[in-house]
Amino acid sequence: MNMNTFGSVHYNAIGPWLKERFGERIVKLSLDGGFTCPNRDGTAGTGGCIFCSSSGSGDFAGTIPQQMKLLSRKWPEARYIAYFQNHTNTYAPAERLRALWDDALSHPNVAGLAIATRPDCLPEPVLDLLSEYNEKTFLWVELGLQTIHEPTERLINRCYPLEVYDRAVRELSRRGVRYVTHLILGLPGENTEDMISSARYVTEKHPFGIKLHMLHVMKDAPLAAMYPDRCPLMSLDEYVNLICGILEQTPPDVTIHRLTGDAPGALLIAPEWTRNKHAVLNAIQQEFKRRGTYQGFGL
Ligand code: SF4
Predict the structure, then answer these.
(1) Is pLDDT at 251 greater than 90 in this prediction?
(2) Which residues contact 285 (CB under 8 A, 6 or more apart)?
(3) CA-CA distance, 51 to 220, in Å (whole number)?
(4) Which of 7, 61, 115, 179 could form a disulfide with 30 if both were Cys (CB 3.0 to 4.6 A apart)?
(5) Three-state secondary structure call for residue 137
(6) Which H or E run includes 289?
């Protein structure tokens, strides 16, 4: 590839991708489906991942009517993806998931589903259900991987090995279900090469999308006890460089769902610079411009 086809943003951002796919603006409704997490209730582990807030990484989530009311003020013409975000959104019997997804899709302005989960919560009946809904609506599944490295996996208390992620990717791909992988950059003990190799591992499998974000230290997460002595954080410049380097090696058709975190201000301890999301995104644009590069440039 020798030209930037993404316009001013330099990467394949999911917002414009959805607009082109649907012919209109599509906005995500962040929903709390009332799930818990096997990494909190003792099934896979206890205490949760060390970076995870008590809301299960869904601090802004609510119900469909609440979220529609909120978002329609800003985007009165938009349609929606119902995004089940809090905790582990396939951690229930298939029939409960069916009822929840049917309810979401019954809203005339809901154009599809996004379902965030753990790769170890995709048993056959759930995979088959996802396959069924994939036939009748627009759908993607989000997988919280964060890192491919085993020492980090143990340190962050993720409580499943990499093979489980590989199996989930295989099974979803076999059924034609889109998936998006989450990675966290700046986890304790990881250097730049570790983070780049996690990103390479994920993008080489050609996911529908990736979500990258800087590690946040939140007031109610176990990581707070490690900060700052055992949890040094990257500066904005280091983060921007890393993001550009990763995206240059990411295939151009992989959609980019996030490059910054969205921690609620009152809960965030550090890094301070993540509070200004626009400044982070701007700095990434500026760095791409300075380099004269874009997503996939280095492939
Ligand atoms: S990050 Fe996900 S898997 Fe980990 S504790 Fe939070 S909700 Fe559970």
Answers:
(1) yes
(2) 8, 9, 10
(3) 9
(4) 61
(5) coil
(6) helix 277-291
Rounded CA separation 228/108 (Å): 48
Counting ligand 1 atoms within 8 A of each CB, the residue from 36, 51, 52 with the most, and so the one to mutate, is: 52
Distance 194 CA to ligand 1 centre (A): 22
Taking the CB of residue 93, how many other CB atoms lie within 10 A of it? Answer: 12
Q: Is the per-residue pLDDT at 177 higher than 90? A: yes
Question: Could you tell me the domains of the chain?
Answer: 7-291 (3.20.20.70)
Q: Which atom of ligand 1 is nearest to the CA of 116?
A: 2
| Residue nearest to ligand 1 atom 4, measured at CA | 49
- Reference 299, options 247, 243, 239; nearest CA is 247
Over residues 36-42, the mean pLDDT reads: 95
Dihedral over Cα of 196, 299, 169, 263: its sign: positive
The answer to whether residues 255 and 209 touch, using CB atoms and an 8 Å cutoff, is yes
Mean pLDDT confidence for 50-63: 75
pLDDT, tens digit, for every residue of 186-245? 999 999 999 999 999 999 999 999 999 999 999 989 999 999 999 999 999 999 999 999
pLDDT above 90: residue 118 = yes
Query: What whole-number percentage of the chain has pLDDT above 90?
Result: 85
Residues with CB under 6 A from ligand 1: 37, 39-40, 48-49, 52, 56-57, 87-88, 118, 144
Place of tokens 């990675």: 183
